[in-house]
Amino acid sequence: MLKILIPTLMLIPTAWGAPAKWLWPTTLAHSLVIALISLTWLKNMSETGWTSLGLYMATDPLSTPLLVLTCWLLPLMILASQNHTALEPLNRQRMYITLLTSLQFFLILAFSATEVIMFYVMFEATLIPTLIIITRWGNQTERLNAGIYFLFYTLAGSLPLLVALLLLQNSTGTLSLLTLQFSDPLQLTSYADKLWWAGCLLAFLVKMPLYGVHLWLPKAHVEAPVAGSMILAAVLLKLGGYGMMRMIVMLDPLTKDLSYPFIIFALWGVIMTGSICLRQTDLKSLIAYSSVSHMGLVVGGILIQTPWGFSGALILMIAHGLTSSALFCLANTNYERTHSRTMLLARGLQMVLPLMTAWWFIASLANLALPPLPNLMGELMIITSLFNWSWWTLALTGAGTLITASYSLYMFLMTQRGPIPAHMIALEPTHSREHLLMALHLLPLVLLMLKPELIWGWAY
Amino acid sequence: MNPYILATLLFGLGLGTTITFASSHWLLAWMGLEMNTLAIIPLMAQHHHPRAVEATTKYFLTQATAAAMLLFASTTNAWLTGQWDIQQMTHPLPITLITLALALKIGLAPVHSWLPEVLQGLDLTTGLILSTWQKLAPFALLLQIQPVNSSILIALGLLSTLVGGWGGLNQTQLRKILAYSSIAHLGWMILVLQFSPSLTLLTLLTYFVMTFSTFLVFKLNKSTSINMLATSWAKAPALTALAPLVLLSLGGLPPLTGFMPKWLILQELAKQDLAPTATLAAMSALLSLYFYLRLSYAMTLTMSPNNLTGTTPWRLQSSQLTLPLAISTLATLLLLPLTPAAVALLTL
């Protein structure tokens, strides 16, 4: 574990000490090596369920895919940020890389934490670099409001979580994840216990986000620079899912009754946010609402508490992480050329940038969960487990799948097909860097088709 | 100010607090408190500005009232129990009176109204002394008395955190913002006083470090209002980069030091089965966080290449020592991993 953490920490002196010409190649190479070594985590051979067990950090089949995704995303973020920060003073570029690295550091500690308070502290710690990235490097004045919404929505959910965790520590005596699953089931009968249940889950529901407390997400995703959007969509949302999957083990049997309204919110959110996507003019906003939609399915999968539900949730989290990040990178290629996120202003790009259209095509297909990609596997497992719980959910999830397909197709057709507008006369050809970025996003997605056991979680 | 007079006043300040620390007799404690008040009065009025004189007068009146109430309560205690020892108080009436008197001394809600106005009239250095040193002596006394009525302390604490949060939201003057921040932090300290006095001391000391950093940041930038913060990127770029972290530490965000007292206090409240109190106190911290975030927006996060929020000033060489600020900033940001050591060291 330390052989990943310490190199990640050393990336900060690398960012500050590298000569100007070599800043981006060096940090990219360094983070790629870290990402490659992190793949060794995927080998979960332990009988106790926990591998790489240390005093404070351990990995298990639930956290390793998310950890690998986090480590994989840092080189991608560095690749994506190279162009839009090129005009800034050197120190500011170094600061940007430092922020991305510190985010990575906190995320690794969060996903590998064995003690829930450590997970909480790291969960909150990721807020500060993300806030700084959004409000300092965002491009419009709305970014200030976005930062406030982001910070306060998350904190309003997570402060009750802190109190709930401390109450749990009081009653069980420990908060170590290694032993918490073996502690005596809690006697949860009073009204206060129901509030405690809600307190445990609210923070993660806000983070996922659940429809209803999702308002921070479109603002934050849209106003953030590309690296911010990438890490938000790919990993920070999954922190909520991961937290929920860890906490829900202890919340039986209340969850059987109390999760009802939240499952309904989640499924209704799939439909509502999908429908909103069909009416979006802002490309990044469309991708952001699409994230809410997919995460609604994940919330449903987790709250249903079946093996297929959990596996489906984890698979969808990983697949969605890669897909959503790829879509934000694609949107950024548009933004860097036209400095506008309005879809109307950047149409018909297949005429001008045909190779990029290939990437748009694959990313849109992944977004609408085309078989045999892992996106479908996750969605199908969740839909099946929800169907098993209640046949009526099929109406919502089926309609959700249909709407997802519609807006993914809409996004593809709007940006790529059709006539090119008259004002687009000098678009830069696609950089190799951008092709590499997209390949590095979508290739793992395709490779995961060949070995899906890596992201099945506990069911493997 | 004449260095001899300044030395005398500072010596008086130190002596007053030390006398209160060392006393076990109520009269001696009262004397130390009065010495502190008297010593700081000339420091507050040194600029002979009407606003400073107004602040001095308000401070004197409130502190004198509090000290008189303290004297009256300790006399009543002597009458009722026959002894003057600070730690041997048993009768509830004098204990409650003394708690309220000390609350007026430090500026807890609902007797907090003097603090923003007094702090606003002072220069930043004297304001720093008022916010930090002047709180030590009353807390030394608060830590020693055994509280009788648990609800009064919790009420004072919760009310202070809420008042500190809401009061600071409408302020543009930095000293008033720091006053409300002080009220909020004092609320947290009082909240846990009856359950774990060592946590009160820990919160007090971390608050000292954080507020010391904040005052020095403002002093270096010579800024007293939010608008004036906008030019700090030109005066001290590295400090401008660190200042949001200092402010977020004041707000209690992990992984910064300011999270440590909040976490430990919430843990203690959870152990005492006071979950609604804990949740309410935690949520009130969000109010304070809003105006700390506003300050960091004004100072750093709206820097160029975005539109400038202020005109560029002359970049004159600052004669302020930066070593204290450097040390306190380090402490404000990086002490969270040392929580077990802090808890172990500060066991009363």
UniProtKB/TrEMBL annotation, chain A:
Domain NADH:ubiquinone oxidoreductase chain 4 N-terminal, first and last residues per copy: 1-110
GO biological process: ATP synthesis coupled electron transport; electron transport coupled proton transport
Location in or out of the cell: Mitochondrion membrane
Reaction it catalyzes: a ubiquinone + NADH + 5 H(+)(in) = a ubiquinol + NAD(+) + 4 H(+)(out)
Extent of the signal sequence: 1-17
Transmembrane intervals: 62-81, 93-111, 117-134, 146-168, 195-217, 229-248, 260-279, 286-304, 310-331, 352-370, 390-415
Membrane topology summary: Multi-pass membrane protein
Top-level taxonomic group: Eukaryota
Primary location class: mitochondrion
Residue stretches making up the NADH:quinone oxidoreductase/Mrp antiporter transmembrane domain: 113-403
EC assignment: 7.1.1.2
MF GO annotations: NADH dehydrogenase (ubiquinone) activity; NADH dehydrogenase activity; ubiquinone binding
InterPro entries tied to this protein: NADH4_N, NADH_Q_OxRdtase_chainM/4, NADH_UbQ_OxRdtase, ND/Mrp_TM
Keywords, alphabetical: Electron transport, Membrane, Mitochondrion, NAD, Respiratory chain, Signal, Translocase, Transmembrane, Transmembrane helix, Transport, Ubiquinone
Transmembrane helix among keywords: yes
One CC-aspect GO term: mitochondrial membrane
Function field: Core subunit of the mitochondrial membrane respiratory chain NADH dehydrogenase (Complex I) which catalyzes electron transfer from NADH through the respiratory chain, using ubiquinone as an electron acceptor. Essential for the catalytic activity and assembly of complex I.
Record-stated family: Belongs to the complex I subunit 4 family.
Name of the featured protein: NADH-ubiquinone oxidoreductase chain 4
Organism: Perca fluviatilis
Gene, per the UniProt record: ND4
TrEMBL record, chain B:
Domain NADH:quinone oxidoreductase/Mrp antiporter transmembrane as annotated: residue spans: 23-286
A GO CC term attached to the entry: mitochondrial inner membrane
Gene Ontology biological process terms from the UniProt entry: mitochondrial electron transport, NADH to ubiquinone
Pfam families: NADH_dehy_S2_C (PF06444), Proton_antipo_M (PF00361)
Membrane topology: Multi-pass membrane protein
Transmembrane segments: 60-80, 92-115, 151-170, 177-195, 201-221, 233-254, 274-293, 323-346
EC number: 7.1.1.2
Catalytic reaction list: a ubiquinone + NADH + 5 H(+)(in) = a ubiquinol + NAD(+) + 4 H(+)(out)
GO molecular function, one term: NADH dehydrogenase (ubiquinone) activity
Top-tier EC class: translocase
UniProt xrefs under InterPro entries: Complex_I_Subunit_2, NADH_DH_su2_C, NADH_UbQ_OxRdtase_chain2, ND/Mrp_TM
Location in the cell: Mitochondrion inner membrane
Residue ranges the record marks as coiled coil: none
Residue intervals of the NADH dehydrogenase subunit 2 C-terminal domain: 289-341
Keywords: Electron transport, Membrane, Mitochondrion, Mitochondrion inner membrane, NAD, Respiratory chain, Translocase, Transmembrane, Transmembrane helix, Transport, Ubiquinone
Biological role: Core subunit of the mitochondrial membrane respiratory chain NADH dehydrogenase (Complex I) which catalyzes electron transfer from NADH through the respiratory chain, using ubiquinone as an electron acceptor. Essential for the catalytic activity and assembly of complex I.
Protein name per its UniProtKB record: NADH-ubiquinone oxidoreductase chain 2
Organism field: Perca fluviatilis (European perch)
Gene (name only): ND2
